[in-house]
Each structure stands twice: as C-alpha cells, then as structure tokens.
Amino acid sequence: MAFDIDMIKKVYETMPERVDKARELLGKPLTLSEKILYSHLWDGKAQTAFTRGKDYVDFAPDRIACQDATAQMALLQFMQAGKDKVAVPTTVHCDHLIQAKQGAAKDLARANDVSNEVFDFLGSVSNKYGIGFWKPGAGIIHQVVLENYAFPGGMMIGTDSHTVNAGGLGMVAVGVGGADAVDVMAGMPWELKFPKLIGVKLTGKINGWTSAKDVILKVAGILTVKGGTGAIIEYFGDGAKNLSCTGKGTICNMGAEVGATTSTFGYDESMSRYLRATDRSDIADEADKIAEYLTADDEVYANPEQYFDQVIEINLDELVPHLNGPFTPDLATPVGQLGEKAKKNDWPIKVDWGLIGSCTNSSYEDLTRAASIAEQAVKKNIKPKSDFGINPGSEQIRFTAERDGILKIFEDLDATIFTNACGPCIGQWDRSDLKGDEKNTIVHSFNRNFSKRADGNPNTHAFVGSPEMVAAIAISGKLDFNPMTDKLINEDGEEVMLEEPSGIELPPKGFEVEDAGFVAPVEDGSHVEVKVAEDSDRLQLLTPFEPWDGGNLMGAKLLIKAFGKCTTDHISMAGPWLKYRGHLDNISNNCLIGAVNAYNKQTNLVKSQIDGEYDAVPKTQRAYKAAGIPTVVVGDHNYGEGSSREHAAMEPRHLGVYVVIVKSFARIHETNLKKQGMLGVTFANEADYDLIQEDDTFNFVDLENFAPDTPLTVEIVHKDGSKDTIKVNHTYNDAQIKWYRKGSALNLIKEENAA
Fold it and tell me: What global pTM score does this model have?
C-alpha cells in the first residue's frame, strides 16, 4: 500500500473540478503541465489566467523530499521557523555522504562512523518534526521517491535539482533550495514563476543499442544547458507510451541539465505497471478513475504547436546512441562519431573507469540491460580493459538484483558494487587509480560531467551515456569503440562482437527487500531532543542574516569576476566539502574557489583592494567582511547552473557579499539568492560585463527605490577615477523585495509565526 494514500485520494478528488475550471477560464484545451499547475494553486480553484514566463504564482505542493547534504541546512532553517511539525508530508534521504571506495559494506560502515553526528542529527530532527527518515544505504533519494512516493498528477518539491526524476511517474516535481522547502514545511505557499512549456513529441520505438537515456542526451544537444530555463518539458506521443516508467524517469532526471523547471509524461500503462509492481495498486486504481485528467487534452497532442511555446520532434526509430561530454552534459555526439571527435580534440581514448548507477540510471531495467552486456563478456571470454563500479538505486533494487543473479554477473567481471548511494556522481569517490591532475577518460551513466565533478581532477574527461553503452565501452577500454560495428579480441585471440542489449522492465518474481531502510517518526515529537554540540565542525546552529538598512549600497568592491561557466559546483564544491553542509562557516571556506578569475584565468586567486595582494577567494572575502567592506560578484551566462544547493547562495551571503551581477541566472540559484536576502541582478546590456575592471568600486545609487519591474542604476568607479554608469535588471516582485528588506525569507517567516 502507498504512503499517504489519503492525501493522494484528496488530490484526485479535487483535480477534475479544478482542471475543468481552469480549462473554462483559459478557454482552451490544457496540457498535462497546466492541469497539474492549475490544480495545485494555493488558493484552490483558478481565478486568473497566468502568463507563462511572467507571472509569479503561489502553489501548494503535495510533498517534500530532502537529501542529507541539503537537508542539514534546510532543517537548521526550519528549526528557526517556530513550528512543531511539518505542514506537508516530508522525507529525508541519506545518500550523499557515503564515499565510494572499497565496496558497499566497508564504505557504508565508514560513512556511519565518519558522519554519525550528521546522521543522528537528521534522524532526531526528522523524528521531532514528523519527517520520514531513510537511513544511510536505503538508496538514492530520487529512486526511492519513484518507488515509494511519486504519483501521477501530483506536485512535489525537493532540495535537489534532480527531484525532477519523479516526472517519470507523471508529476510536476521541482528542485528547489532549502529555503523554498522551509516555506512549504512551515505551511506557507511555494512561489514559482509560471513556466513556459516545451513539448517533445516522440514517435516510433527505441531499438537495438538505443535507450531512453539517448532521448535526453539528444534533447540536451538540441536545447543546450540553458535552453529549457523557465520551462516545463512535456513529453508525449506514441514513442513516449512505448517507454518504461523508469526510462521516463531517466529522461526527466536529466532535464535538469538543460535548465528546465521540470519534465513530465502523461499517465499511461507503463506507469500503471510500475505502480502495481511497487506495491501501489491502490494509487493505480485511483489514477485509472481520472486518467483523462492525468494527461493532456487530446487536442493538445494533436496540434502541439498551438499549445506549447516550442515543439521538438524525435523519431525513436531513427535515434542512435550518444555519449555526451566532456565537461558539459549538452555536448552530444553519436557514438559512431566520437572517435574522430576525440582525436581532433585530444581527448584521451583510453577509458579507465565505467560507472553505472546514480539517480539517473539505477533501476532494475537499467541494471539488467547493462548486465546483458557484461554477461556476454563473461561468456565470450572478453577481459574488461576498464574498471567497473556499480551503484544500485535503492536497497529494494539491490536486494532484488542480487536475488536474481544480476549483481553476480558484474562481480564476475571484478566490478565493485558500491553502496546504494550517489557516490562518484556527486564527487564522493575515493579513486585510488589516479593521483594529482593526470589527464584521463571515464564513462558513466550519471547526469553531470562538469570539471572535477566525479573525482576532483580537472583533467578527468567524463562522458555520459546509457548503462549498456557504458558497459560496452568499459569492456573495450576505448572511447572510440562502437559496439554496433566494431569487434573485440577475446582472451583466446578470437574476434568477437557484442550483441544488442536486452533488459527486463520489471522483475518477473516481483520486487523484494528485507529492510528498505525507512524509519517513521513518532506521532508526538515534542519530547525529542535535537542536539548540536557547540564545538562541532560538522553542524552549526544558524544566526539570522542582518536586514537591509533601506539605503543605497555605496563603495562595494569587486570580489571576483567569474569567467565562463560558473556552476554551483564552482561556487560551492561537493566531494569532500559535503561533510560541512551543516556548518555554514566551515563550508564557506570553499566559496567560489572553483570559479575562474577573468583577470588571471586562475581559480581561487583574486586581488584584494585592501592591500593589493592576491590570495584565496574565501580568505580575501573574510578580510573584506572584517573591514566592513561590501563586495560584488560578477558572472557570465547561466550563473549558478547545476545543483539546487543553496550553500552557493548562503556562503557568499555569510561572508559579506551583497550583490551578484551576471548576464543571466540559472533558475534555482536566482531564487536561492533572493531567499537569502541577496541582490541578484542581470546586465541590461550584456556587453557591460566587459566594462568591469579588477579594482572597481560599485555604487548602487537608487537602491533605496527598489521596486518591481524597475531597473537599478549602478555607478562603476574605476581605479583611475573614471566612471561608467550602467543599468541592471531584476525579477524581484513585492514579496521577494520584502525578503530582501528583512534580510532573508526565513527572517520574514519567523516574524510572521511569532505574531
């Protein structure tokens, strides 16, 4: 039986009436995305036809999910909100703080020892405030959510950018910063700019070496890392119905890599099968009753150009396998063309590791398709030329895969079976085969491949592919291997070819697990004590940020002008820094250390205008803060791309950065800056980025008149005394300006709850 079945029934009871009202109000057929959005309005039934990409709207999500790295800061904030219990169903999942090294048993034991303080904190906070707790080793948050909590037509938010994975079960599921989650936990609405809509029509059926992963790898190549910003991607067509539910989840998961608000699919038979296979027939039965409301109106899919802002069509019959990368997930290359491209760009051809799993591709079907390739290597006596690492998506997946002999196939190839956790995908990988900055290549079935992402090495060239393609390339040991045309030499000196992969959508004997790893909270948590040691270097209670004084900001100095791509990985690295996610001051020592300084093209080396010396970014900024000098960060396009981690906003705020000026923001990061009481603005003229000099001083001369839809004026004073005056735009509405005035959204929540 499903978790929260009563809540789901209530959603389904109100959905038809709310959708009908919205259809009448808009005077047109509705997409699935619109049906879910309009049926989850904070005020209930639709009263206004919202303008896509413009209107800020208050929503009422059905549930929240948090992973351990982000949950720490989210729950530290919630503890200040003055509430006894979370207002909506919420879960915490311990999946980020487990380092992959020797294998599941040893790695999990080490994580429980090293991060025991954090796990105990999360468990006790969850118990106190009515939050479901998934123990370390239970699984990766998004796979666990898909197996247990996602439901067609629902809306959820999660403190991880890949929350969008739940779109595979027909949800509008959105990654947010912890402050957004705190709002909803505290019983307040969740605000989102009403998204634009991108329709992706899928025809035909994937076949041969092509997989669902190749759909999103192709889409990423079309849209690029920012082409989906501010939009929901809705997949439809016969090709969509031909995909498995977990395949749909894979596609939605990587929608985060094109900047999309989320992605989703209409309810169909594959979702029904998956719900019933995961012991949620009660949800499938309820969904079947209102099935027409859990997908778009027929007219929409018949004439998509009339209802979507952009339409992309992909024929799955013709789609070929891709590998995307290196260093960015939108550099899409068909497998057969990769060899020539690699040689031209001097990418290492030798592949050192093949990594299978992560929240993107760790389902039962994924493992069986990869195992079908691995089994051929065993039977055909082919010795893999690369190391193998496997991360199952959940304990249920791992237990079932072990029962069915799937994991043994990988073990027969000397693969390392890591814990049911993120591991290398989030930089939690103690990689023993390389040291320093050696240039090398890895292939993986993850979603992101930014520089340093997997192992901290800026010269690791990471390529993203399907689990079966990763298996094939790892077996060959060559990046330019094309399993559809190329032969391998086995240990007997014979030429052999790998046959097409085969997979099993759902386990024939059903899913099975002895201990899923879930801990339910007590009914009354008022007597549960949450302890945070004063001398802890892992956890730190929060001190509220100071409110705005209402005046203009004058005399601000440039901290750094970031050159090129500046993701949340550059602003607040993961990997070894994950252990400080609950200690704002300690983790702030990684603030912007990965950003490239535009003036010397180096990382973590900026000039101080106090003494003229060059030093690390955090050290330089701490000196500015100690001297009472406000600072500004300048960035390029899509600043804050990537993870939802709000630390990338909280760290600069904590250290005394007042303003971020960029050409454009990634959606989640812009919201995170607003929530933390920072000023995030964009150049009205992008060319003004080039005006910024290393020793500049910034005067925000009309900030005292801060108002919606009104650009701000910035006077830039150069070292030689010359000045440039520019305009910067912002997207703050009245409510968000209140956050800024109070110093943060949390300050406002606390004030309102105390009233």
Answer: 0.89
